[in-house]
Write a structure and sequence with these properties.
The protein is mainly beta. It is built from two helices and 28 strands. It has two domains: about 70-260 and about 270-275, Sandwich (Jelly Rolls), CATH 2.60.120.10; about 275-420, Jelly Rolls. The strands form seven sheets. It has a seven-stranded antiparallel beta sheet with strand order 20-13-10-15-8-7-28. A six-stranded antiparallel beta sheet has the order 6-25-24-27-22-21, with no helix packed on it. Bound molecules: fe (ii) ion. Fe (ii) ion (FE2) binds near residues 331, 337 and 367. This is Homogentisate 1,2-dioxygenase. InterPro entries: HgmA_C, HgmA_N, Homogentis_dOase, RmlC-like_jellyroll, RmlC_Cupin_sf.
């Protein structure tokens, strides 16, 4: 039976206090000698105890039974979902994939995860893992938690009803959900099937970027992020907990549902965000700003200005720049870029990049508009604005090379002739 949601509180990283039953949340003490209503008090820390206050994340959970209560862990076989990114050769070639096929047999969110690429790993607590999911069944009598990473979930097809220890997060395409490291959850499919993208962030937690000269408004505004209120179920039975730990999945039996947190307070919690609330900023004279202007969230790295992960979107916008090549330009970057498409048509490609598909352009590999897009944009009348409507593309960008997995390289839906999209670029030189 699905756990019903209990509403949300607005804001990013705020200290939230929420209780599903009046009186469940203790006042004044985090860990009173006896917690209210016979609950157990349990702290969940998402940052080092001594992290500076501005970055310190933790929540206190008041629950029917503590998280320590479960059976032995044994390995769980789901070999398509992993963090094996390899240490050997990696081709610099541009890569692209058609949409991940939906499963033909009953497959839930956990078994439907397929690792495409990544770098670093949970042992070093740096880098990212990039996965797609395609599923057609609710998670039944089982729960998942990821000790390795917070999970940025980007639905592309179908709604997800994500029941977590700290409350229910409902998302559909154009929304994102972030599930913190260690939080247990269960995913139900409101539409019977679903597909989307997941980025595991092994590093520092995602946060809103500074705005610099943009000022105090713009890009993703804090009030548009939503944290769920407490919601719980008090159910005994036969359940299993799947725990991702150091790149592998482990399974333990449980005799109760872990969605038993009646009240909680703190600032370490899942959240959701509607990408359509992103206040897109761009040039109103000529040229483009760098795509960092489309940054929704980033996970800072050890070097100032160099993120472990940038999450960037290319959404609806108006292009009014005069005498400017308006689509994304040809470029080679030190950063590596994994792109996905949620909806519509991405403005740098005429065809081949479909919703549910993906592309990978690694460090210093040339890419940009295909030949057809180049010809069209070069001849466009830039005295009139272009309205980019009905699309949402995104990018997971990071400073480390993104290493495609063996299964992604060998996948039948990989477009092995992707590079052909640039072969029609003519020599227009008139020197
Ligand atoms: Fe790029």
């Amino acid at each position: 039976m699905a756990l019903a949601g209990n509403g949300y509180q607005p804001g990013f990283g705020n200290h939230v206090s929420t209780q599903a039953i009046a009186g469940a949340l203790p006042l004044g003490r985090n860990s009173p000698q006896v917690a209210p209503l016979g609950l157990y008090a349990e702290q969940l820390s998402g940052t080092a105890f001594t992290a500076p206050r501005a970055h310190n994340r933790r929540s206190w959970l008041y629950r029917i039974r503590p998280a320590a209560m479960h059976g032995h862990f044994a390995e769980y076989e789901q070999t398509r979902f992993h963090n094996v990114f390899g240490a050997g050769k990696v081709s610099p070639e541009q890569m692209r994939w058609s949409p991940l096929p939906l499963p033909e047999s009953a497959t839930d969110f956990i078994d439907g995860l397929v690792t495409y690429a990544g770098n670093g790993g949970p042992e070093s607590q740096t880098g990212i893992g990039i996965h797609l999911y395609a599923c057609n069944r609710d998670m039944q009598d089982r729960f998942f938690s990821n000790a390795d990473a917070e999970m940025l979930i980007v639905p592309q097809l179908g709604r997800l009803h994500i029941e977590t220890e700290l409350g229910v997060v409902d998302v559909e395409p154009h929304w994102i959900a972030v599930i913190p490291r260690g939080v247990r959850f269960r995913v139900s499919l409101s539409d019977g099937q679903a597909r989307g993208y997941v980025c595991e962030n092994f590093g520092a937690l995602l946060q809103l970027p500074d705005l610099g000269p943009i000022g105090s408004n713009g890009l993703a505004n804090p009030r548009d992020f939503e944290t769920p209120n407490a919601a719980f179920e008090d159910i005994d039975g036969q359940f299993e907990l799947i725990n991702k730990f150091q790149g592998h999945l482990w399974r333990a039996e449980m005799t109760h549902s872990p969605l038993n947190v009646v009240a909680w307070h703190g600032n370490y919690a899942p959240y959701r965000y509607d990408l359509r609330n992103f206040n897109t900023i761009g040039s109103i004279s000529f040229d483009h700003p760098d795509p960092s202007i489309f940054l929704v969230l980033h996970a800072p790295g050890p070097v100032a200005g160099v993120s472990n992960l940038d999450f960037v979107i290319f959404g609806p916008r108006i292009l009014a720049m005069r005498d400017t090549f308006r689509p994304p330009w040809f470029h080679r970057n030190i950063a590596s870029e994994f792109m996905g498409l949620i909806d519509g048509v991405y403005d740098a490609k005429a065809e081949g990049f479909a919703p549910g598909g993906a592309s990978l352009h690694n460090c210093m590999t040339g890419h940009g508009p295909d030949a057809e897009t180049f010809d069209k944009a070069s001849a466009a009348d830039t005295s009139k604005p272009d309205f980019i409507r009905g699309t949402m593309a995104f990018m997971f960008e990071c400073p480390l090379v993104i290493r495609p997995s063996e299964q992604a390289l060998m996948a039948s839906h990989r477009q092995t002739e992707y590079i052909d999209c640039w072969q029609g670029l003519r020599n227009n030189f008139r020197g």
